[in-house]
């Protein structure tokens, strides 16, 4: 019997589509870490109350709760349900995926609530456990219904293979999180990775004496207003050019590179504006738009326009250098006193736990980006 080449191609297409989504699995891992961090933040004051960890399950319903808490708990676990179903696809689907996803949500939520009994500033709640589980179930159903369209016949999946290199899945997750890393307030625009103040606090507690590592490295040098703006311009320019150049490393020649670069930058600025309006006041939504920030964005785009014509391997190495310089600069630069004054109006309120997760993402994002660019298996080439 003679085989038909056309029919073989048709039959091979579904087989090629039914592959595990590395993007979904990476995103699920990142979301699990964010849930754990947000649930146990600030990781201090651990002590046992002498009660079994599962006591909260059999306690009465909380006397004080708000609709905001219920909605937040449900919405917070819906992405977990969706991503878990997508991560299980195509090996486990439909009812099996929903059941396993719900089991994960129940175990995770139960473990987080039980662990919160050891934190004096957190309250374990059976209502939180129920609403988190409901959110997971809702997400699992949504994921099960949409997995076929999203993971097999999605237009986005087609564009992903057309525009991005085959090895870009992990990098896509990391750089898609860059706008989210701008939520936590920072001294300088795009100034992620400012870890010296946290290390200084830890050393101060350990040594029982005030320690300022940044001041020691700067030899106590203070900056003028113009110098603060210059520092912000440099930090912003290094980050803008480094991040966007790293994105270009993952794009094929046929991709609309300029549009995708501007979309990522615009998303980061939009998230920054919205977060500033929510965390402070709507009147301060554009407080981050200082002369230093404006100059840094323009300088970063000008630098990017010249570096965009480098070969892919050279772009990757240059992006690594720019992000390392940005990490060093943001840790050496002193905290802007005008930014510190703005922080005094920051009412964390209901966003306290979310702010912990946002800070975690802001601190670790540069490390994740450098890991992707430096790892041998993640060095992508445009074909």
Quantity of strands, as a count: 0
* Shape, principal axes of CA atoms: globular
Distance between the termini: 37 Å
What is the residue-mean pLDDT, rounded to a whole number? 80
Main sheet makeup: none
Helix-strand pattern: HHHHHHHHHHHHHHHH
Q: Which consecutive residue ranges, at least 5 long each, have pLDDT under 50?
A: 1-17, 378-383
| Helical segment count | 16
Radius of gyration over all CA atoms, rounded? 23 Å
What is the structural class? mainly alpha
Strand content: under 5%
Tell me the helix content: 55-70%
Number of domains: 2
Written account of the structure:
The structure is a single chain. This protein has two domains: 19-153, no CATH class; 169-378, no CATH class. Helix 2 (22-40) runs parallel beside helix 8 (169-176), helix 11 packs parallel to helix 13 (291-307) and helix 14 (312-332) packs across helix 16 (352-374). It is 67% helix and 0% strand. It is built from 16 helices and no strands. It has helices at residues 5-17, 22-40, 55-58, 67-88, 94-116, 126-151, 155-163, 169-176, 196-207, 213-218, 225-249, 257-279, 291-307, 312-332, 337-343, 352-374. The longest helix has 26 residues, at 126-151. With 383 residues, the chain is mainly alpha-helical. It is globular and about 60 Å long.
